[in-house]
DNA sequence: GTCTATAGAACGATAGAC
DNA sequence: GTCTATCGTTCTATAGAC
């Protein structure tokens, strides 16, 4: 079963090498900036092999998005509370500017390009990004909902939705700051963001406690 | 002085038509998605004229950025306080998704693409965007600083900086939400964002009042 | 200043030998 | 499954007539 280096290695090995290559390139250059020739070069395989393993550029990025979402789900499933979630999300923004340390985290900054490029409206990778964005939102909102005690389900659901919207805006905003190269201490502002959201939560809970 | 339509009209008239054309295209398709042929078609002039008035695509976008910044400065110079600033900025995000109503506002969502496309590192338009982003930040921070009474200058400066960072993250984040097509009531969340930042301000001011 | 034609480069994708 | 050569398209930019 001995195989020569780079030729006829297991299919899965090559596929994985290509996924790693496209991640490293996408982090540097985004979707449009990543060329299939780049990916081939970074993977050590010829461009023909890339097209043998993946139908086209769109499908290659769809596969990459799915892979990154898996990583995200694993690392965020164990987050204890809102503050911890914000800490991790905003720290990921910092990782995105430093770049290579945690490519799977840095990827989500690249994903934002999909949000802006309306030219990619029919692009399957863009649609997958938006679908995953929605799934992440529901994931966060349902966790928050479960953490509000002493109010009706309706109130908890609306509050969780509001806080999830605000939290998403903040983390996306700090990703923009990282991409723009703003000189920002993300660790510090993660705490400030958590302070701000916590004060919204307690104000809302207080408000409904008075009515009861 | 009668001139035939579209031929040899005043230089300024054509230049302005081209700027309007590139704005309308950039709002739809971003930087890379806007082609010089698109701009020419939208302006009603041939592509040769576009290159006669502007050196190249980069310089065309530099001129567009400067023009939009002028509009922004005019419309935000009169903003009364932080809540009003957030209202306008986040309402602009909504305008960006609806698109054509206020192109000068919608433009800033397009500008965010420059933040993400690192491939454009040496691009003069990207550098201009980042410079203007910095100027806007200082503009906001200095206005906030002047609004905090009863604390030392150092404290006011640090607080203004923090709130400006948080406000920028929030508005950028809502621009992302608009671009991603998230179903969001921007008017409502502008108020919530203002509530959150105001609670940060009063907490900080209270903290320093106790020490004095 | 306006307009057409085209050069020149980059990219996605395919064909077909091995 | 791997690899090379190449096709077809798209886009920026220029040349040069008017």
TrEMBL record, chains A, B:
Q: InterPro entries recorded for this chain?
A: Homeodomain-like_sf, HTH-type_TetR-like_transc_reg, HTH_TetR
**Keywords for this protein:** DNA-binding
| Boundaries of every HTH tetR-type domain copy | 12-72
Q: Which domain of life is it from?
A: Bacteria
Organism, scientific name: Streptomyces chilikensis
What Pfam families does the database record attribute to this sequence? Answer: TetR_N (PF00440)
Q: What is this protein called?
A: TetR family transcriptional regulator
Q: Is Transmembrane given among the entry's keywords?
A: no
Start-end of DNA-binding region: 35-54
Does tRNA-binding appear among the keywords?
A: no
């Amino acid at each position: 079963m001995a195989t020569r280096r780079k030729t006829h290695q297991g299919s899965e090995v090559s596929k994985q090498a290509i996924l790693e290559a496209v991640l490293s390139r996408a982090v540097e250059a985004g979707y449009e900036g990543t060329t299939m020739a780049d990916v081939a070069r970074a993977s050590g395989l010829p461009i023909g092999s890339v097209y043998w393993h993946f139908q086209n550029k769109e499908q290659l990025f769809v596969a990459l998005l799915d892979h990154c979402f898996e990583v995200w789900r694993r690392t965020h499933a164990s987050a204890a509370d809102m503050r911890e979630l914000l800490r991790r999300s905003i720290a990921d923004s910092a990782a995105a500017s430093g770049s290579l340390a945690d490519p799977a985290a840095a990827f989500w900054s690249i994903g934002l390009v999909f949000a802006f490029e309306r030219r990619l409206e029919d692009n399957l990778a863009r649609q997958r990004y938006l679908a995953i964005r929605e799934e992440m939102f529901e994931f966060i909102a349902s966790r928050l909902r479960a953490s509000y005690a002493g109010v009706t389900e309706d109130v908890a659901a609306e509050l969780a939705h509001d806080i999830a919207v605000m939290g998403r805006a903040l983390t996306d905003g700090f990703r923009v700051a990282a991409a723009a190269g703003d000189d920002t201490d993300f660790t510090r502002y993660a705490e400030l963001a958590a302070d701000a959201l916590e004060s919204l939560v307690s104000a809302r809970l207080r408000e409904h406690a008075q009515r009861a």
